[in-house]
Amino acid sequence: MDISEIAITAAMASGFIAIHLMVRRLNFLDATPRSGWLSFAGGVAVSYVFLHVLPDIALHQREFADGMGVGAKEAESIIYSLTLAGLAVFYGLERAVKMSRGESRKAGEGDKMGNRVLYLHLVTYGTLNALIGYLLLHREDAGAWSLGLYFVALGLHFFTADFGMRQDHPEAYDRLGRWVISAAVLGGWVLGLVVDLSPVLVGCLFAFLAGGIILNVLKEELPEERQSYFMPFVVGVLLYAGLILAERHWV
């Protein structure tokens, strides 16, 4: 790992942190119908997962099989089960948030999460952010183009995820949440400097991350009350798909 890679990834980790800290000031996102920029960002994140993350996992299937000491089919089942697990874990978290907000409204305490669910939310998203910070230095697919695609896709994903978190509990997000998830990104990046996990484990973490991103995007885009925009979502999907395919075939 050379100095230039450390400097570039440090700048990218700082960019992620800036998004977490500043998203509350982007008042144009807080609108109904939903801002087209959030739908565009969601399309980019989904495109990145399906055309970059999942194909990379499939490409390294033999390496996973050898590292796990299992057959190719078993390794494939394990990896994609982790993707499903990532989706299921974050779905369970979102259900807990909605139930907690409902209980708070019934108790006359306003539309907010209870403290227990809030802390669970912070731990889960903090872990996800630490993983994203770590993967700045240890992705499956190395190279400048791959790193750039990763940064843009995950940065745009943070806009949608943070916006959703702030809607769930604005006061707690501004007071505590944004600092916790920002520290998690930095902590994950620092961990990447000093710890080199096995390629198999990195692939497994990447698979879990993919499931979490898919769920986070869909839960922000699909609910009827969001009044999301289809065309910006499609533009995000197609634009980023073009960049990913160009990176794979011509770079």
Characterise this structure:
- It comes from Aurantiacibacter rhizosphaerae.
- The structure is a single chain.
- The chain is an all-alpha fold and 251 residues long.
- The protein has one domain (40-250).
- The protein contains 9 helices and no strands.
- It has helices spanning 3-22, 36-59, 61-68, 72-106, 115-135, 144-168, 170-194, 199-221, 230-250.
- The protein is globular and about 55 Å long.
Largest sheet, strands/sense/barrel: none
Helix content: over 70%
Number of domains: 1
The fraction of residues in strands falls at: under 5%
Structure summary:
The chain is an all-alpha fold and 251 residues long. The protein is built from nine helices and no strands. It starts with a helix and ends with a helix.
Essential attributes:
single chain
What layout of secondary structure does this protein have?
Elements: H1 3-22, H2 36-59, H3 61-68, H4 72-106, H5 115-135, H6 144-168, H7 170-194, H8 199-221, H9 230-250
Helix pairs in contact: 1-6, 1-7, 2-6, 2-8, 2-9, 3-4, 4-5, 4-8, 5-7, 5-8, 6-7, 6-8, 6-9
Transmembrane segments: 6-23, 35-58, 78-97, 118-137, 143-164, 176-194, 230-246
Protein name: Zinc permease
Organism: Aurantiacibacter rhizosphaerae
